[in-house]
Amino acid sequence: MKTVFGLDIPHTLDEICSPQRMALVVYDMQIGILKQIKNPEAVVAKVARVLDAARAAGVRIFFMRHMSLPRELMGAFCYRMAMAWQRTDDPEQVSPWFLRDSPGFQITPELAPRPSEAIFDKLTMSALEGTPLAIALRDCGITSMALVGVAMEIGIEPTARHAADLGIVPVIVEDACGSGHAEAAQRSVESLKFAGDAVFTDVETFCRTLQRTGG
């Protein structure tokens, strides 16, 4: 552990992935979102391995779900974004894809959250904007956040950048993060690596690290 002015600065993956100071954020592993990416089964399997390792190590776990508002509650930006995603220039043609309690809104059953794990709904791309996540992490003394789920280019990147701005080290388990557009996802990875705030790892290394640090 590096130290300066009485501060402990985690440097190695083992130091960053302390189960007492790290949370796992499972991002948007919803039925309707997984249908939009390639090889969803492979992503689910990778995320399940990370989830099992985190549970065994005693890591705090938070699931995120993307939620649509009914048309009557959508604002101008919400319509604008939906029009872009649904490839229409007519707001009357917009259909909310992830309404609360719709089948596509639900987390895929292979990753069913436990009663001891939180589920937070969001309207934003960053998991830390407009949700209780930042409050919960701060209250638990969390200093690093492992990220898995979908999609790298849509939600993982902005969440990692937001975490870094809050002083939380983002740990991206790269092969447990799916994408809808491979080239865009690679650009996100390269941009995050260039910025230097995030730590990148893979499922095998991350799980072995938790086996060591979790005792």
What does this structure look like?
The strands form two sheets. The chain has a six-stranded parallel beta sheet. Helices cover 38% and strands 20% of the residues. A hairpin with a 2-residue loop joins strand 1 and strand 2. It is globular. The model has no long low-confidence stretch (mean pLDDT 96). The protein is built from eight helices and eight strands, in the order E-E-H-E-H-H-E-H-E-H-E-H-E-H-E-H. The chain is an alpha/beta fold and 215 residues long. Helix 3 (40-57) runs parallel beside helix 8 (203-213) and helix 6 packs parallel to helix 7.
CA(first)-CA(last) distance:
18 Å
Task: Quickly give the structural class.
Answer: alpha/beta
What is the share of helical residues? 25-40%
What does the overall shape look like? globular
